[in-house]
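Aim 2, interim progress. The first record below pairs a target sequence with its structure tokens.
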Amino acid sequence: MGMTRAFEAGVVVRDLERMERFYCEVIGCRAERRTRVPDSVGGPAGLGGELTVAWLRVPSGGCVKLIRPRSAPVSVDVAPWSAGRPGLSYLTFHLDDMDPVLAALSAAGARPLSDPVVVLARGRRISFWADPEGNAVELVDGRGGNPDPGHSN
């Protein structure tokens, strides 16, 4: 079995326009296209009905798909992010220098998930943030010094 395309991750959102601006203007993704998935496809496919998908290209490869259900409301009563929670935990973006992104995150409605905001780990700097709707995002850059052997990032 061989994979034919770069990896894609889907994130269900309440405010598609706001989240598209966040991931493009702050994180650095590029809006590629929008797709309307009709109820006749979304229902039988197990997606809950009609939805709109904004395809955002990640410059280093892959795609983030922002998914806005149209026929079912997105719950706002979701538990805060926790590493012990099952399911998708966070999106990781590898940057050459995270400092310009860090400077823009709070103004864009994101909030840090750690104190200190930037942590040195295995020769890299990492920073975890909640995007404007609470989805966890990890930023990683290689400006943390000499890596320890066997690092995973």
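The second target in this work package is listed in the same format:
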Amino acid sequence: MNSLGRAFVVTSAVLALAAAAVPVASADPVQTVAYVSEPGAWPLEGSAQYAAPGDEIAVWEYDGRLKIDVQSGFEDMRVELSAPAGEALHTGTYTGARWRGQSDPALSTPGIFVVSTHFGCGDDYADFTIDRLDKDTGGRTTDVDATFVQHCGSPEGPATRGEVHFHG
């Protein structure tokens, strides 16, 4: 084989390896919500994993709050996350979040609201991290990656640890 032929074989092999190493974007949207609760945690108990399309998952922002809704059969849950008063919610870690009811004004601390099948905790303590919060040109939330640790009743109470991955 002449040098031109060897160069073609080597170049072809390199291109084939490079093509194999490039990740392929999935056409399917990722929509999952999961949590694990320590014994005695409230209002989310035990553990659960939800995934679309079998479970209905909706994520949007309204009035400065990131709302995550899950409907699965007869079960439903909502987690709302908000920045302190005067701030816009953005990527980052929020510590010292407190309960913020659905119609309450913004707090001086970050806010959290957790409800499961119509039961909630009115004395939440939480930390949460938003790793991704993307919007389309119209301002609609399109992509979210977030985690949270929520305690009901006291900062040392049993914890619920959850995560949200929504890429529509």
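Confidence is low (pLDDT under 50) at residues 6-26. This observation will shape the mutagenesis plan for the next reporting period.
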